[in-house]
Design a protein that fits this description.
Layout (H helix, E strand, L loop, with lengths): L10 H18 L7 H17 L4 E4 L18 H6 L4 E4 L6 H10 L3 E4 L1 E2 H4 L4 H11 L5 E2 L8 H24 L5 H20 L2
Parallel strand pairs: 1-2, 2-3, 3-5
């Protein structure tokens, strides 16, 4: 909620921001983390721990809740963090509407993966166009299908249906245009829909 321009926050600033948050949690039983120094500090710790434990770290990018300023949700703001992170970074929600920027990051940084959740299903009729741009730039082995479906079971069904529809449509176009063979397209679909996530998350 404080944006993706992540800075190295001094521990004392993070501690100062944490104290009132802790008191709020004690009084009300809930908090909403919005302090930039504390958020940046905790993200730095998360990157260190992910590297130490050889785990991928997921980071929200692009659209989301109403209190998130979309201007600061462009994944390009993460370049400094990406360059110092020694762990795989999974950038969520395709960075929508900044999916071209995120596809570029996945193409140039070996530690960046692109997760399609939330953009599928909420990009609706724009899903094929989004996937065409993403798969035209990002390595096919670094794009992962997901839905971020919640609350209503119908969203899971709809996201799965639309995700497969959009992916199938674009891979068919790539075959027709000579960019992929049928075998390559089938391999890409298997990787995007499950294979890459299974390897990255070791499941």
């Amino acid at each position: 909620r404080s944006g993706l321009v992540v800075e190295a926050a001094p521990p004392e600033e993070a501690a100062a921001a944490f104290a009132p948050l802790k008191e709020t949690a004690r009084r009300t039983g809930q908090v909403r983390l919005a302090s930039k120094p504390l958020g940046d500090y905790l993200l730095g710790l998360a990157v260190e721990q992910a590297a130490a434990q050889n785990l991928p770290l997921q980071i929200h990018t692009g659209f989301g809740d109403r209190d998130a300023d979309l201007r600061w949700a462009n994944p390009l703001h993460l370049r400094a963090l990406i360059e110092r992170a020694n762990c795989p970074l999974v950038l969520l929600h395709a960075g929508w509407p900044y999916y071209r920027e995120l596809a570029h990051l996945a193409a140039i940084y070996p530690n960046v993966w692109l997760d399609l959740s939330l953009a599928i299903p909420f990009a609706t009729t724009g899903i094929p166009a989004m996937l065409r741009d993403i798969l035209g730039m990002a390595p096919l082995s670094k794009v992962m299908f997901a839905t971020d479906a919640f609350t209503m079971p119908e969203i899971f069904w709809l996201a799965a249906r639309w995700g497969r529809w959009g992916l199938g449509r674009i891979l068919d176009e790539f075959i027709a245009e000579g960019f992929l063979s049928i075998v390559e397209a089938e391999s890409a679909a298997a990787a995007i829909l499950s294979g890459t996530a299974q390897r990255l998350y070791m499941v």
